[in-house]
């Protein structure tokens, strides 16, 4: 079999990686390049790249859907909180507004500190609450109706 000699120019980083791969595999650099070129020119290569791209797009689409869902939950949560806060908040009398502002600044500072702690821990408060609720649900489901009656009854059990 005759081979054609080519002189090519590649980036220094690629040359270094090619040297390392050839040494690791115990083959010549020409053999590594020939295999890569054969793979790239193969009729299946386009299908393989398209399949890989499809998988990536599917994964990104699922991530986007989760983000969109979470954003919707966040918007609804904030809206409900604001409505509740505005409904139950009592207007502050004129003479007490400075004290209320100072207290608000202190509470906001505490809020920011607590938020920073949660972010540094890498755990979501929403996830923690969700896990606590799920744990409570599992605990309540594990309790049989007879056990529930015994818990609420003041009669001693035999």
Plain-language structure description:
This protein has helices at residues 12-25, 29-41, 43-88, 97-121, 125-142, 145-152. The chain has six helices and no strands. It has three domains: 12-41, no CATH class; 46-88; 102-140, no CATH class. Helices cover 78% and strands 0% of the residues. It starts with 11 loop residues before the first helix and ends in a 6-residue tail after the last helix. Helix 1 crosses helix 2. Mean pLDDT is 85; it is low at 153-158. By secondary structure, the protein is mostly helical. The relative contact order is 0.02. InterPro entries: Arc_rbn_hlx_hlx, Ribbon_hlx_hlx. One of its GO terms (biological process) is regulation of DNA-templated transcription. Residues 130-158 are annotated as: Disordered.
- Topology as a string of helices (H) and strands (E): HHHHHH
| Overall SS class | mainly alpha
What's the total helix number?
6
Strand percent estimate = under 5%
Terminal Cα span: 93 Å
Contiguous runs where pLDDT drops below 50 for at least 5 residues: 153-158
Give the strand tally.
Answer: 0
Major sheet description:
none
* Overall outline: elongated
Could you estimate the helical fraction of the residues in percent? over 70%
Q: How many domain modules?
A: 3
Mean pLDDT: 85
Report Rg: 32 Å
């Amino acid at each position: 079999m005759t081979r054609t000699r080519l002189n090519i120019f590649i980036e220094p980083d690629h040359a270094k990686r090619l040297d390392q791969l050839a040494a690791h595999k115990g083959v010549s650099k020409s053999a590594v390049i020939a295999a890569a070129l054969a793979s790239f020119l193969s009729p299946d290569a386009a299908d393989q790249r398209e399949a890989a791209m499809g998988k990536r797009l599917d994964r990104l689409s699922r991530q986007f859907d989760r983000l969109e869902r979470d954003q919707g939950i966040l918007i609804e949560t904030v809206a409900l909180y604001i409505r509740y806060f505005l409904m139950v908040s009592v207007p502050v009398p004129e003479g007490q507004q400075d004290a209320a502002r100072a207290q608000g600044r202190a509470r906001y500072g505490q809020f920011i500190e607590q938020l920073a702690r949660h972010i540094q821990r890498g755990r979501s408060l929403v996830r923690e609450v969700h896990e606590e609720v799920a744990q409570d649900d599992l605990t309540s489901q594990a309790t049989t109706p007879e056990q529930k009656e015994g818990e609420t009854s003041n009669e001693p059990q035999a």
